[in-house]
Amino acid sequence: MGVQFCKDGHLIQIVIEDYEEITMMRKKEQQKKRENTKNGKRERAAKKIQAWWRGTLVRRTLLHAALSTWVIQSWWRLTMDRLLQKKRRAALIAYAHRERAVVKLQSLARMWRIHWRYCQVLNAIYVIQHHWQCHNCQACALLRGHCVVTATHLQFHIEIINP
Questions:
Q1: CA-based R_g, the chain, Å
Q2: Count of other CB atoms within 10 angstroms of residue 94
Q3: Which residues pair with 130 in a beta bridge?
């Protein structure tokens, strides 16, 4: 039982409470609190488990993404290395072909120049032999010739030997 006054003091409210109802209500409230605390603990535990599981799924997904990225990057590096090796090999082969062609051309040019000098020497020898055969003192002298052909000039020595 209780008496309650308003702030202004004009209204009086008398409340009569039943003791049994109050105790029953208090027991129900305590029971609800207990259930709430049990449910609250369960909810908190469930939330922790759910958060752990979501974190596990996220970490698993991130690990899978990282491994996939690593595999793709490794493959790309290998592909680029193979491409670089092919380019190097092609450049080396092209260089070798050019060098062979240059050496062949140089060899042919030298051969042609030496052949041309040799033909000049032969023509000179033929001219000298022809004039010598026409000379009237054929029996009294011998010709001895010596020829050196170089890349830049021709050395030609003829000696007339009297026996």
A1: 60
A2: 10
A3: none
Global pTM exceeds 0.90: no
Cα(80)–Cα(72) distance, rounded to whole angstroms? 12
Structure tokens at 7: 């702030």
Residues comprising the chain, all counted: 163
Say yes or no to pLDDT of 139 above 60: no
Long-range contacts of 6-14, Cβ-Cβ distance < 8 Å, separation of 24 or more: none
**Running DSSP on this structure, what letter comes out for residue 139?**
T
User: pLDDT tens, 24-70?
Assistant: 888 888 888 777 777 777 888 888 999 999 999 999 999 999 999 99
CB half-sphere exposure, 150, CA atoms < 13 A: 5
Backbone angles phi, psi at 79, to 5 degrees: -65, -45
- pLDDT per residue as tens digits for the range 91-107: 999 999 999 999 999 99
